[in-house]
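Hi R.,

Here's the chain you asked about this morning:
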Amino acid sequence: MEISLFGKKYKLTVVSDKGPRSENQDFAAWIHFGEGYFDSNLDVIPIKNNPETFIAIVCDGMGGLKNGSKMSARVCKEFITGMASNHFENLENFIDTAGSLLVTIEDAVRKDLPNSGTTIASVIAVDDLWCIMHLGDSRIYHGYDGWARTLDHSPVESLLSKGLIDEEEAFDHPMRNIVSKYMGGGYAKEVEIERIEPNEKIVLCSDGAFGYMPHTDFIKLISETTNASNIVHKALEEGSKDNTTVLYLSPTTR
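And the predicted structure, written out as tokens:
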């Protein structure tokens, strides 16, 4: 679908596939609202008088813990619903509010869904000021002509960052599915937030999308298509054994 954000056109595609798993523990959601208009894939009614805002989020419920599907859906829905019902003046105010909200959400879900967890990968824009937010090993790839990505909260990413292994070794590492920080584990206060530039291509994805092909192959794939379904199809074709979710936002004009 095409959406208009801050006077510019963007292509937005979202696909989530359970793959060979019996249950889909991924969840993706987005919302765009401002004075007098609103669009979302959730049933949400935002409050009035906030600046134009876009939020997209992908959560991957952790399969090794209980209630992964409930956890991912709840975090996505409560984050978007909570931010849409709060008042904020600008991106900085939004970030402060979001940080507090995530802690509140985590406290609640740890009581209701104990021993559960989910990752977060989110992009947020307020009045054409953009940032990304993540926790765990769901990734955000972003850029104009090249690509940068978020760093996983995982032991393997730590080894990679220190230069002790390379991307090829990380791809086959026996600990590659271990996550060191996630929602539900008491890490909501440690969510990482980073400013990015307007008009970047942005890919939010669970590890089922990128984790079953070499890094260079995935970069080539997201460079050659802006359609989330093509990426999910290729990941499954390459043998992804996990739920696979991709949200792709790409400017059609600059």
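The chain has one domain: 2-150+181-251.

Let me know if you need anything else.
M.
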